[in-house]
Design goal:
The structure is a single chain. The protein is mainly α and 52 residues long. Helices cover 85% and strands 0% of the residues. The chain is built from two helices and no strands. It is flat. The chain starts with 6 loop residues before the first helix and ends with a helix.
């Protein structure tokens, strides 16, 4: 933590995020997993291109 939020605010944000993804249903969770994996792959490819 960078001191931007206190421990209670941090824990509330984590709880809210988890319940948001859990309440979305299986299709939403699958779509988000694909989106997150795709973004991660793009970042790795850009880093690799930058390194040559």
């Amino acid at each position: 933590m960078l001191g931007i939020v206190n421990k209670q605010e941090y824990e509330q944000m984590v709880e809210d995020t988890v319940s948001f993804y859990e309440s979305g249903g299986r299709e939403f969770q699958r779509d988000e997993a694909l989106r997150n994996a795709s973004l991660s792959a793009v970042l790795f490819m850009l880093a690799a291109k930058e390194k040559g």
